[in-house]
Design goal:
Length: 417
């Protein structure tokens, strides 16, 4: 089967990319999704908070996904469900396994939109057996919201990322007692609004600078030991505390699903664990694009949509032989940033460039400054910048068309924990 654009993954990234590819002249477009339905992680996110930027209203995850699923079905886009992509070559040959057996497709362009997976208990190395009752927070969310199983009654949550915070509220609403959210960092890695709406409103304690040192119980979790940590994350003597519980939910990070990308020799940035991309969202392999959580972990789906439209549009341009940028400069993250996306900007692209980054620390009243060859080309003031909130800044074509030196993005302001 031959396609102008093959989209791998039917979550919000894949859906927005497919619609945009089709609307920008890619004739034959398909979406390959391993799950039984389109929508990705949004299907299990039954809370609201989606769509504020995109639709100016607060939608639930399934409502947000439905808007894009409807648009996909209105177009002549082939959908393969229950179909898992197992191989991709740099010549854009895709092998997938699904209801129709093993299928082979060839694309003029491919969009990688496989999302990310959760870090598991093994990755954090907590002492103890591995009894029943230890779940990744996202898995527990799926079991409760989609399969109808309450995973426990007395709960400790390790990690204060958004999934952990949202699950603290969800478990409470379902009748469980959430005893604490334990976070090793001195600040939460979740959005501020989630700390208020999911913890403070339900009197759930957030224990910052604490770690879980031991899981107790052999067949089922019986409790956990927690302790305070110093600024190097070492346990502080005499601070151990036992909390009895039957469930430990882990919300300790997400990992972009790039095994398929690496089969096609797509280069991976060790900071984002996603592909190196240019401002067209094109990886270092011509015609292979990447967007959404497989590129870098997003906190807000609206930003996934925005980025994925760029990927889809340019995948269509590539398929039509019209993506011919020739002048590129590199983009670097300054000392105060964890990373910046894209890593390269095409100067001769009239759409300009969307810059995304995360800070390493909390800054109050900071200014984001963008330099080219030490010359300030753009600055923007913020009330607060926190590591949990990704920042996006659009650089118009006028700002970049005549640049000669590489770009550096950084924050000016005092660190404030
Ligand atoms: C618990 C939770 C709460 C959130 N809350 C909010 C919120 O309140 N507001 C907000 O704006 N955002 C929220 N987000 C963020 C938002 O949901 C994500 O950023 C967004 O869903 C990412 O979209 P994606 O398409 O990149 O990935 P996903 O939604 O993960 O979709 C990826 C898709 O690719 C498929 N796939 C993967 N590998 C393959 C393969 N090999 N073959 C075929 N298919 C494959 C997967 O099955 C999946 O359907 C939340 C996220 C989580 C996890």
């Amino acid at each position: 089967m031959e396609y102008d654009c093959i989209v791998i993954g039917g979550g919000p990234a894949g859906l927005a990319a497919a619609i945009e590819a089709k609307d920008n002249g890619a004739d034959k477009v398909c979406v390959i999704e391993r799950d039984r339905e389109l929508g990705g992680i949004l299907n299990q996110c039954i809370h609201n908070g989606f769509g504020l930027h995109e639709f100016n209203e607060e939608l639930t995850g399934p409502e947000y996904a439905a808007k894009f699923i409807d648009e996909v079905y209105k177009r002549d886009i082939d959908i393969f469900l229950n179909t898992m992509v197992i191989d991709l070559t740099k010549d854009k040959e895709v092998t997938a396994l699904g209801d129709n057996g093993l299928i082979k497709l060839k694309g003029k362009s491919v969009v990688l939109a496989m999302g990310c997976r959760e870090r598991t208990a093994g990755a954090i190395g907590v002492k103890g057996f591995r009894p029943a009752g230890v779940y990744n927070a996202g898995m527990a969310q799926r079991l409760i919201n989609m399969e109808g199983y309450l995973v426990g009654k007395e709960v400790v949550i390790y990690g204060s990322g958004d999934i952990g915070l949202i699950m603290a509220r969800r478990m409470t609403l379902e009748g469980a007692k959430v005893k604490a959210v334990v976070e090793i960092m001195p600040h939460s890695s979740g959005l501020n609004r989630n700390i208020h709406q999911c913890l403070n409103d339900f009197n759930i304690p957030l224990l910052l600078s604490h770690k879980v040192t031991e899981i107790h119980g052999k067949n089922r979790v019986e409790g956990v030991t927690i302790a305070k940590v110093d600024d190097k994350f070492n346990e502080i003597d005499g601070t151990r505390e036992y909390i009895s519980c039957d469930t430990l939910l882990l919300s300790v990070g997400l990992i972009p699903e790039n095994e398929i990308s690496q089969k096609a020799n797509v280069s991976i940035d060790l900071r984002t664990r996603g592909a190196y991309v240019d401002s067209n969202m094109q990886t270092e392999i011509p015609g292979i694009f990447s967007c959404g959580n497989v590129l870098h972990v997003h906190d807000i789906v609206d930003f996934v949509t925005r980025e994925s439209r760029i990927a889809g549009k340019n995948a269509a341009r590539f398929a039509r032989g019209e993506l011919n940028n020739s002048k590129y400069i590199d983009v670097y993250a300054g000392d105060k940033l964890i990373y910046v996306i894209p890593q390269k900007i095409a100067l001769d692209d009239e759409n300009g460039a969307l810059i995304c980054f995360r800070s390493k620390n909390i800054y109050r009243n900071p200014t984001v400054k963008i330099y080219s060859n030490d010359k300030l080309i753009k600055q923007k003031k913020y009330k607060i910048i926190v590591p949990s909130e990704m920042i996006q800044i659009h650089l118009k074509y006028d700002y970049i068309k005549d640049l000669e030196g590489n770009i550096m993005v950084d924050i000016e302001g005092e660190k404030n924990d």
